[in-house]
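[Structure tokenization] protein backbone as discrete codes

[Encoding] learned vocabulary of local backbone shapes

[Begin record] amino acids and matching fold tokens:

___
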Amino acid sequence: MRLFVAIDLPEAVCERLQALCGGLRGARWSEANQMHVTLRFIGDVDPQAFDDIADSLADVDQSEFEMTLEGVGHFPPRGQPRVLWAGVTSSPALAALHAKVEAAVVAAGQPADTRKFAPHVTLARFRKPVGASKIGAFLEANAMFGTAAFPVDAFHLYASHLAQNGAVHTVECSYPLRPAD
């Protein structure tokens, strides 16, 4: 079972993101129902590890907070783009939730994630190189993208099943955040 932990986005935010999805040949655009902010990619695990992870995530104690999206960019930041993304405005609450999720996953016996946390929403993936001028034009046209703040009141453990047309994500467990003080 291939797992990741993520925050879902409100429908209105997904609709705004979907409006960005177009205009670049060769891009495999994300569907609205696949848009989320990944807190931790876990990868393939066996059923016992799944149970341990699900139980450990239930111990995460975090209060609700607000999140905003701002700007667009690509990974890697230098070289041929493979992923086009919408950015997430950094916040202490989001960083705290990420740290708590990471600690819970490690406590469940998974290796630590050594990559820097770069919160984003994947808009598209590229299988073949796309011209730098086309990417630059997309980034310039959408540089002012942003959303109003929206509430984050839960996070989810997802299973990702690879299919011919891309991954299918299924919520396995949901973890509500406690009401803000």
User: Anything to note?
Assistant: Helices lie at 11-18, 47-57, 92-107, 132-141. Residues 63 and 181 are 8 Å apart (CA to CA).
